[in-house]
Amino acid sequence: MEELRVTGGGRLGPIDSSRIPRYAGAATFARLPRLDQVDRTDIAVVGVPFDSGVSYRPGARFGGNHIREASRLLRPYNPALDVSPFERVQVADAGDMAVNPFNIGEAIETVQQNALDLTADGARLVTLGGDHTIALPLLRAAAERAGSPVAMLHFDAHLDTWDTYFGAEYTHGTPFRRAVEEGILDTEAISHVGTRGPLYGVRDLEDDRRFGFGIVTSSDVYRKGVDEIVDQLRQRIGNRPLYVSVDIDVLDPAHAPGTGTPEAGGITSRELLEILRGLRGLNLVGADVVEVAPAYDHAELTGVAASHVAYDLVTLMADTLTPATPAPIAEDH
C-alpha cells in the first residue's frame, strides 16, 4: 500500500488519514514514519516489550503495540497546546528494543544502551512500556545525556521506592529507590503524583521523605484542583532537565482497567492530561508511559488514554525544541 503522508513543515509526518483509513496499514505510533524512513529524528518513540519485573498481573510486554494500535486515532494538530508537533520537529517510531525476558539485569543494561544509542545525535525519547522496571535504565541514560542528575515527575498509584521484592533489587516496585541511591535524580526536584491506596506501613512514606520525594496524592488533585497542583510542581522543578514517568495505573481503573496493579480512587484521564499540559515550557528531556497490560483492557480504554498521554508528551517536547532545518524528503518516502 502506498504511504500517502502528511508532510507539513518539510517533515515526514503521519499517514494521511483523510486518504488512507485509520484502520489500514502498519500501526506505528500515531501512524508516523519508522526511524529507517527518515534521515534524522528529533523525537523517537520506542517500545520496550518487557514485564519480567511485575509483582502481580503480567502482560505489559504487549503494552507498546497496544498503545500504537490505539494511537491510530491521533491527529497531527494538538489544539490543547496549539502545536503541530509532527510539523515542528521530526518524530519517528523506532520500533521495539529486543530485551532478554529471562534476565532482568541484562534487560536493564540493554534498555540503557539502546536509549543512549537512540539519543546519541541529540534526539529525545518517549518510551512505551513495558513494566516500570525500565524507568531505571531510561533515567540512567537521561542523566548521562543531561550531564547531571535529572528532575523527575512520577505519575503512579504507587511509590515504586521499595527496597526489594523477595530479595530482588530490580523490579517494577523499586526503580526510583535505586535511582536515588545511584545519584541520577536531583532530589530537590522529584515528586510522585496521583499516589493512593494501602501501603505496607508508615515507613514507606518516611523513606520517601528521606529520599527527597514530594507526594501529590490523587486526593490532593481532587481537593486542590489541577491549577494549584501544576503551580506546586512547576515551583519544585524549576528549569532543571526533567524526566516524566507515567504509570498508567495513576488513572482510576474506570479510565485504565488494562494494567497490572489497579487501585481504586485514581485521577481521571482529563486531570492527567491537564496536569501534563501545565508543564509546558519546562525542559522535558525524556519520558515513558508504562504498565499498559492489554489482556485486562476492554474497548481500548487504557490504550486510548495511554496514546493520548504519549502524544501530549511528544507535543511538550516538540514545543520546546528548536527546529532544525529539515532535510529534503526523498521521493520513495
H-E string = EHHEHEHEHEHEHHEHEH
Strand-pairing-aware structural class:
alpha/beta
Question: How many strand elements?
Answer: 8
What shape does the CA trace take?
Answer: globular
The main sheet comes to: 8 strands, parallel
Percent helix: 25-40%
Beta-strand proportion: 15-25%
Query: Uncertain spans, ≥5 residues at pLDDT below 50?
Result: none
Please tell me how large the radius of gyration is. 19 Å
Q: In order across it, which strands form the biggest sheet?
A: 2-1-3-8-7-4-5-6
Q: Give the overall average pLDDT.
A: 95
Q: State the separation between the terminal residues, measured CA to CA.
A: 12 Å
Give the helix tally.
10
Describe the 3D structure.
The protein is an alpha/beta fold. It contains ten helices and eight strands. Strands 2-1-3-8-7-4-5-6 form an eight-stranded parallel sheet, with helices on both faces. Helix 1 packs across helix 10 and helix 9 packs parallel to helix 10.
List the helices and strands and how they pair.
Elements: E1 43-48, H1 63-70, H2 85-88, E2 91-96, H3 104-118, E3 124-129, H4 135-146, E4 150-155, H5 175-182, E5 185-195, H6 202-211, E6 214-217, H7 218-224, H8 226-237, E7 242-247, H9 269-277, E8 284-290, H10 301-320
Parallel strand pairs: 1-2, 1-3, 3-8, 4-5, 4-7, 5-6, 7-8
Helix pairs in contact: 1-10, 3-4, 4-5, 7-8, 8-9, 9-10
Please tag this protein with its features:
alpha/beta; single chain; 8-stranded parallel beta sheet; 333 residues; 10 helices; 16% strand
What is the compact description of this entry?
By secondary structure, the chain is α/β, with parallel strands linked by helices.
